[in-house]
């Protein structure tokens, strides 16, 4: 996929997961997504839906709180992104992009790097 399509897909995922209608209010008045292990399952499903066969999952892990309870999950993946020759990528070839997506009970976040060590 080219870089423009890649950015659109990332944006769609961000807007879906930060839409307040998808989150529920818990007994403390905090917005929560799913609880525990369900977050990793949901994240895997959404990444497969958004990126499909363009991604390669490198690792999956649970995220735990200080009490060692599972509160979410994180998935690290690799995607080859072609330059779209329109803008700052002009004249360059494509490259692997490494991303780490995390979904916990109270937050969604992602990190991106050109190397696995950069995550």
Would you write up a description of this structure?
- By secondary structure, the protein is an alpha+beta fold.
- The chain is 24% helix and 36% strand.
- A hairpin with a 2-residue loop joins strand 5 and strand 6.
- Helix 1 packs antiparallel against helix 2.
- The two termini are 22 Å apart.
Quick recap:
The chain is α+β, with helices and mostly antiparallel strands and 119 residues long. It has two helices and six strands.
Number of strands: 6
Order of secondary-structure elements: HEEHEEEE
Q: How many whole angstroms does the radius of gyration measure?
A: 16 Å
Structural class: alpha+beta
Mean pLDDT over the residues: 87
Largest sheet: 4 strands, antiparallel
Percentage of β-strand residues: 35-45%
Number of helices: 2
Distance between the termini: 22 Å
Shape: globular
Strand order of the largest sheet: 3-4-5-6
Uncertain runs are none
State the helical fraction: 10-25%
Provide the descriptors you would attach to this structure in a database record.
single chain; 119 residues; alpha+beta; 4-stranded antiparallel sheet; two-stranded antiparallel ribbon; 2 helices; 6 strands; globular
In terms of topology, how is this protein built?
Elements: H1 3-17, E1 24-25, E2 31-32, H2 38-51, E3 55-64, E4 70-81, E5 95-104, E6 107-113
Antiparallel strand pairs: 1-2, 3-4, 4-5, 5-6
Helix pairs in contact: 1-2
């Amino acid at each position: 996929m080219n870089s423009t399509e890649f950015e659109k897909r990332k944006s769609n995922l961000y807007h879906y997961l930060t839409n307040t209608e998808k989150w529920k209010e818990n007994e403390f008045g905090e917005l929560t997504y799913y609880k525990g292990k369900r977050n990793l399952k949901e994240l895997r499903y959404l990444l497969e839906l958004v990126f499909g066969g363009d991604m390669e999952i490198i690792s999956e892990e649970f995220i735990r709180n200080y009490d060692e309870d599972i509160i979410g999950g994180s998935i690290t993946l690799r995607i080859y992104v072609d330059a779209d020759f329109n803008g700052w990528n002009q004249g360059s070839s494509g490259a692997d992009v490494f991303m780490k997506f995390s979904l916990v009970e109270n937050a969604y976040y992602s990190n991106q790097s050109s190397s696995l060590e950069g995550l």
